[in-house]
Amino acid sequence: MGRARSLPQPVIAEIIAVGSELLLGGRTDSNSLFITDELSTLGIEVRFKSVVGDDRADIVRALKTAVARAEIIVMTGGLGPTVDDCTREAIADAAGRKLGRRKEAFEAMQKRLAQWGRSPNKGQLRQALIPTGATVVPNPVGSAPGFWLSWRGTLLISLPGVPAEMAAMMRESVVPALASRLKERGRTPQPIRRQVFHTWGISEADVDAKLQGLIPKKASVDLGLLASPLGVLVSLTTKPLNSTAAETWASLSESVRACLHEWIFAEGPETMEEVVGRLLIKDKHTLALAESCTGGLIGHRLTQVPGSSAYVDRGIICYSNHAKIDLLGVPADLIERHGAVSAEVAAAMAKGVRERSGVSIGLSVTGIAGPGGATATKPVGLVYVGLNADNGETVTREHRFHGDRSVIKQRSSQAALDLLRRWLLNGCR
Amino acid sequence: MGRARSLPQPVIAEIIAVGSELLLGGRTDSNSLFITDELSTLGIEVRFKSVVGDDRADIVRALKTAVARAEIIVMTGGLGPTVDDCTREAIADAAGRKLGRRKEAFEAMQKRLAQWGRSPNKGQLRQALIPTGATVVPNPVGSAPGFWLSWRGTLLISLPGVPAEMAAMMRESVVPALASRLKERGRTPQPIRRQVFHTWGISEADVDAKLQGLIPKKASVDLGLLASPLGVLVSLTTKPLNSTAAETWASLSESVRACLHEWIFAEGPETMEEVVGRLLIKDKHTLALAESCTGGLIGHRLTQVPGSSAYVDRGIICYSNHAKIDLLGVPADLIERHGAVSAEVAAAMAKGVRERSGVSIGLSVTGIAGPGGATATKPVGLVYVGLNADNGETVTREHRFHGDRSVIKQRSSQAALDLLRRWLLNGCR
């Protein structure tokens, strides 16, 4: 961070994630999204991310590449107690430092392990080895300390790969320290602003067409679109160092909102299940579910939200026709006449589950998730969602989804929750 | 791939994933695990992975780094029809090529769009631009073609970022072409062998202790451990170019299996829900679920498996005590005496759901997922799982899990499915 003060320059960061499991499969790296978010609050822009295995020479190569293009390097992983873990050795190699046991690191580890009734083993002793000249970053959650050091004008930060430890160390030590270093050096970029809109029920191509020309070139704001089975995510991100005034930003946000309001179900980090939960609590509703093709996914999603026991009374996963008849009172002849995958049966399921449980709203899904189960008239992906409320209202919707079994289940759960959301917004009580 | 033939050298690959959304949040890159797996069947080792945003200069930098350290570069993303997508321009810049409309790419795209009743728009026309000297990789799923080219002795392959398109192009074109190129050049490394064991019910530290000293140094096999809420994954991976004989490999596999057989629930890509489904079908069992704290997650997991309607009859998500009494016939005074989170209630839930649905096995979970709901004697993470079978057997297990709500739900679902798996393996009929 010792570069020219006169001209404002973006503060460029690189993330290096160390771990053979990240390359070989079994796990994708989720730490870097968290780090990117935290750094963006300081106006620091993550421009590169690298993943390397637990190989000392490869880590050195990645470090040398990073130091040439980034002012801040955040490394995660490879600080554990096993022989595989060689991040600290690789940093010492690359930056030409020696490793030595650091008193404060050793004592903190000893104290932590003593709380757990243990004393450091041989591997854990290695974790107190810190490169010369580096500053220890305490670990408030686990036993492995992190550290940072200055190298060729770049600040190199090394943290454990365990998400909870990395997150606590970023929030408690790294972000405050970076903020004060940037300030000292007169490098205080604007925070990178980011606004996210979650839409459902409109394709990526249609979102693209609707937003065409909405963002003037000079606004220096990036528009991002990202399609997933749960809808299209639309994001506005300021370019670092830009001068987009607060009112321009607000008016751009408002334009996107106005353009897509019919499809936006949430802004920011809120999920569909959180939005629905909030609306249910607001109007003191209680909910019962009747799930066929989603197999419990709607219940699972709703109960991910702390406090959901206040409004989720029960759910019936009625995979068999027998269960639909037996547990929900769907008339057997209705299934015979229309088929289990029909608007009529979706309506009867919602009504049945509501009446039998004594809640205010029943929500249902019936459909063909595939790959089997299709008929001449009912293809894989045909899904009906239904809602029945204690004011006597019944609503059903037909959907024709594409994708594999997992995608169709996800889309079906989203369609059901969105039906409920819309009803709650426009609804009664 | 034009390097020395005399000495066997590992074939090193690098993956470059392009896309601002991969850096800024909203999505982690899952394509690279697939690519790594595919390349390992050819003995090609992915040693580096880089992620860059949709920035032409940054992509050029990443390419220049990669070409200096990898013999094969697989890029994904940035080939779409929008202005953001600049991978082809960056490749042309880096490798000093011109972009021109390629007839076969244009015609294939025209044909694909015609099937969908459309003709290429301006953005899609850009997708037919291919660097001079590059070979087009047809896209059997979508409209964007990929391509590959030789550059400074490295083979650079560029594919779309859409997972289904990338996967089809890897399998149908890239892997066969790489295989024949390697063969032509006398570079035919051994496939990288990888064996994965999934364990449940044992900690990472205990797995580590049990496997201590099991792998002789000269075996040149890497042992990997990875903990997740669903258990500890243990992997054996051969180092490329190693000469680990088939019998050594088999005996190492057998040693791990023997050492951990009590906890291994699956090998290879099989999931717990697939294992359980296979065992249920084998013995012609039918299953009903009674889920409290998992909220539908067990049902969701079981019904992710195609064909699960053959054994999943129904599930009851009984969040309220009322629902437990009403739908499962759990005696109200049992809940009063022992509390809803107790072995007694877990047993009664499993029995109730089995008897009322007429299936052969009932499986139940009741617990405190948190963050609320704990009492002086019952902490967050206390979970009971129960099983009741039509031979009169009842089994329950107590667990004390750590973690947030989502982790406790996942662990609870795994504990219930593992109880069922063990019962099916040892069980009756």
Alpha-beta classification of chain A = alpha/beta
Put simply, the count of helices of chain A is 15
Q: What is the subunit organization of this protein?
A: homodimer
What would CATH call the architecture of the largest domain in chain A? 3-Layer(aba) Sandwich
Major protein interface: A-B, 81 and 81 residues
CATH-derived topology of the largest domain in chain A: Molybdenum Cofactor Biosythetic Enzyme, Chain A
Average pLDDT metric of chain A: 91
Strand content of chain A: 15-25%
The CATH class name of the largest domain in chain A reads Alpha Beta
Strand order of the largest sheet of chain A: 2-1-3-8-7-6
Name given to the CATH homologous superfamily of the largest domain in chain A? MoaB/Mog-like domain
Give the % helix of chain A: 25-40%
Explain this structure to me?
2 copies of one chain form a homodimer. Chain A has helices at 20-24, 31-40, 56-67, 87-95, 103-115, 122-126, 163-184, 204-211, 246-260, 272-282, 297-302, 321-328, 332-338, 343-357, 405-426; strands at residues 11-18, 44-52, 72-76, 99-101, 129-131, 135-137, 146-151, 154-159, 194-199, 221-228, 231-238, 264-267, 287-291, 312-318, 361-367, 382-389, 394-400. In chain A, the strands form 4 sheets. Chain A has a 6-stranded mixed sheet with strand order 2-1-3-8-7-6, sandwiched between helices. In chain A, strands 14-13-15-16-17 form a 5-stranded mixed sheet, sandwiched between helices. In chain A, strands 10-11-9-12 form a 4-stranded antiparallel sheet, sandwiched between helices. In chain A, a hairpin with an 8-residue loop joins strand 6 (135-137) and strand 7 (146-151). Chain A folds into 3 domains: 11-184, MoaB/Mog-like domain (Molybdenum Cofactor Biosythetic Enzyme, Chain A, 3-Layer(aba) Sandwich); 197-266, Alpha-Beta Plaits, CATH 3.30.70; 272-426, Alpha-Beta Complex (Maf protein). Helices cover 39% and strands 24% of the residues of chain A. Residues 1-6 of chain A have low confidence and may be disordered. Chain A is α/β, with parallel strands linked by helices and 429 residues long. Chain A contains 15 helices and 17 strands. Chains A and B meet through helix 1, helix 2, strand 2, helix 3 and strand 10 of A and helix 1, helix 2, strand 2, helix 3 and strand 10 of B.
